[in-house]
Amino acid sequence: MLLRLRGSLRQVVNQMARRPALLCGAIVLSCSLILAITFTCSETKQVVLPAQPPARFFSPGAPVVDLYLGQLDEAESLRSASEVSLLYFYAPWCGQSISARGEIEQVARKLADQVQFVAVNCWWNQGKCRKQNNFYHYPVIYLYHRRFGPIEYNGPITAAYVEKFIRRVITPLQYVPSRAGLQDFLSHYEPGVLGYFEFNASPQPPGYLTFLTSALQALRRDFQGVMRFGVITSKQVAKAISLDAPGTVYMHRHFNTSLMFPSHVLNFTSENICRWALEHRERLVRWLRPHGGKSRALEQELRKGAALLIFLPFDPMAPSQPLVEEVAEIAVQYHSCNGSSWPGFMEPEVWGEPGSLSRAPCCNTLALPHWLSVSRTHNVCELCLDQALGPRPCPSLDSLYLREDSFTQPLSGKVQCSHVLSSSSPLDYYTACCWSLSKGSSTQQDRRAALPHIEDRGSASAHSAVTGLKCRTNKTLNFYLLDSGLHWEFARRLGAPENASMMGFATVLNLQDEVHHVLNQEQGIVRNTLESFIQNYSTPYSPLQRHLVGEAAREPVGESLITAVTTQTFHKAVMDPEKDVLLFYYTQWCGFCSALNHVIIQLARLSLSNPRLAVCRINAAKNDLPWEFMVDRYPTILFFPSDRKHLSVKYPEDAPITLPNLVRFVQRHSSPLRSSSSALHREKEPLLQKPSPSDSRADTRQGESESSATRQQRPPC
């Protein structure tokens, strides 16, 4: 084999030596092939043209530093040199970034002297911002307060909301200079945290920066800013809420006992203060601000129980919100199980009395479980730390529960107090007072005298119909507020008029019980009507009727084969005693429903010869019906005979929905006096027999042609 190969090579070499032109041609051909391959590969790299360099996103006159090349280092330099800064990360092609640009410019023109506004193009592939950040949505807004940040803003990107949030970041602490300011701070429905610091000895007393950072931590966790933080510098004002030692943090609560931050148990850090405040806050009214995208935030809140959704026109920058304050006052009275009205922290005349504000006992009110035998005579107990046994720290008592064996003497009478000394109980060194809570109870004065609460020292006012209703009914409501200017689409889907966002809207939803009630829109959202609405819902046999949401009735254009039924026209169209009605339930997302359109259309064409038979359809996803007419699957067909509407019949689920089967179904359940003489019966009598394959194919072709012809007259569902 090797010898043959050598011989072949020798012959080739000899032939090329005799013919040099052949050798030169081979060399030239090889070089040309190499050059062609190189040129082709180099051309493939230039098929995609490079992206055009980005241009300025904000207008030149806007007080916003526009880093449209993604210069992240320059953005960090500007941020570190500013007291408060806002970084706006955008993508030039993003519609939301473009729509929010004008809102940011409007805010920047107002706050340019206090805040450094920086915009960064985070989509340019050669920029450092794109290389270091992986944002999955645009725009992204970060705020920085000195070295603290980022605080991401996730609220509505409108000028008013953004400005409100920026101002909260600029001044995270509210200064409380006087006792009048303290009363105003504590009487607000939103939870409040106060810190007492003396600035006489030092411009930055110990713990002040930590408390300031804790307020920023709360804004980072809750962009709505419902947790308010205040600072007291006056010793006289601090004594009003029993704050003696500087550096003490106090959390005011309306219905449970106000708390002191347990610095002996937890380290005095901003993270611990923020977590402690969020865990122990009272939320009487919650703001819902769904962002409009795919989210389950609204569903998660509604699954917590019955919800009272109130849509109100809201201006974040308004100095006062009368409607919001009125709803908040109703919510406070609704939760006031002790019968008090809006909880203040002391009566006005007590201010001038020296020594009238002694330290309040560390107490907490607990409801006894129904399975305890003691709950037959006493259903509420108040557990207090016994200060007579020596000074002890005041822990949080929210997780403590009373036990029958914790009392050293039997409970009897209207109010019974006992000392808890059980060595095996975690309630050592505590006193307990129990009473029966009922409407119009006469034990309130006795209880207050025995165990005073700083929250119970508010001025008395007339009780409303909803005072303490939360504790007198098992149909507890959660109060939610929504901005009608932003979320009116939700209100419209719940039954509100199309264009009435400035009037407001109120509804009660209970997903578990499938309850939906709507406040009469003509009455408006005023105190009396809202209280009556809540009271009517809370009664055992509520007089409120279930609200049915449906499409607006449309005037038919010409003659139609199938009658479109809505919530408003259901009884008129379906409950007509002179007609047999076949009702087809469908939804727009049901693929099987669309596949059956041609069958329903064929049946409707055949029914034209029978004026006593009507074929109707209803979009069940957009039209609510009374419970007795609701269905749990789609498609569904119900037949309502004339004069016997209460004997409606459902088409068998296991039977194929075909034209012959539908005809047999209609004939079987039609009114006896009319089925025999029905034109439909006479016309389709052969269909009562088993159709042959050829007839089936003919019916299919005829149905397809009729369906296409009908679609030209009226579009299917």
TrEMBL record:
This is Thioredoxin domain-containing protein 11-like. Residues 58-171, 547-671 form the Thioredoxin domain. SUPFAM superfamilies: Thioredoxin-like. Gene3D superfamilies: Glutaredoxin. Pfam families: Thioredoxin (PF00085), TXNDC11_2nd (PF26234). Residues 673-717 are annotated as: Disordered. It comes from Huso huso. InterPro entries: Thioredoxin-like_sf, Thioredoxin_dom-contain_11, Thioredoxin_domain, TXNDC11_thioredoxin. Residues 705-717 have a biased composition (Polar residues). Signal peptide: none annotated.
